[in-house]
Amino acid sequence: MSSLALAARDTTTMLRRNLLHARRYPSLTLNLLLTPVMLLLLFVYIFGDVMSAGIGGGNRSDYIAYIVPGLLLLTIGSTVVGTAVSVSNDMSEGIIARFRTMAIHRSSVLVGHVVGSVLQSVLSVVVVGAVGVAIGFRSTDATVLEWLAAFGLLVLFSAALTWVAVGMGLISPNAEAASNNALPMVLLPMLSSAFIPVETMPGWFRPIAEYQPFTPAIETLRGLLLGTEIGHNGWLAVGWSLGLVVLGYFWATAKFAQDPR
């Protein structure tokens, strides 16, 4: 077999292993998935009328349309926390040291984690999106091309955050530390335009919200699904995503190449 075929075979094996772990121990995935679902229900049914009035005098259905794209990106951030924990567990429990002694493609271990996490993120997004549709979210103006672009953005952004989460898992001594290190993945969406427009924030805080990775991704997704203005956010979202993929990949592979702890 060629080197590429061997790498693909080993990556598939590692992907199957990670998916089996997720199926056998679903509690972590479910706990992380509950965060965006509960936030969606909380902000729609408890704060919906007040929040919709604050962003332009609309009704609750307008706020549902506004908040769902942000919650979909927050779902990805929440899901990849589990990836950091899973990678940290593999490192601390010694299975990675065992893999190093086996005749397998070294990158397959990390790529298996990344592909498995992206698949879980997409599934989580589908679940949260279904909840959003159930409570009134509609995207009637989006074309097929815009839906495909939205899906591509979600996958690319998920891959970007996952590679960073893998690096966080590799530097963490245990699962608790990995969870804490990956916490910004959940906090950053809350400091973005997910819940309120950036222009309604205090002036000193706007640059923090505007120039972080989540805001341009949220605005791009919102524009694709709802037909709002995207402007330069599309390029920023793609740039942030590709930059994080490259940064996370080289960081994770460099840490993985070091001697096991």
UniProtKB/TrEMBL annotation:
It is a multi-pass membrane protein. Keywords: Antibiotic resistance, Cell membrane, Membrane, Transmembrane, Transmembrane helix, Transport. The chain crosses the membrane at residues 25-48, 63-88, 109-135, 147-171, 183-205, 234-252. It is found in: Cell membrane; Membrane. Residues 27-259 form the ABC transmembrane type-2 domain. Coiled coil: none annotated. The keyword Membrane applies. Belongs to the ABC-2 integral membrane protein family. This is Transport permease protein. It comes from Streptomyces pakalii. The lineage of its organism: Bacteria, Bacillati, Actinomycetota, Actinomycetes, Kitasatosporales.
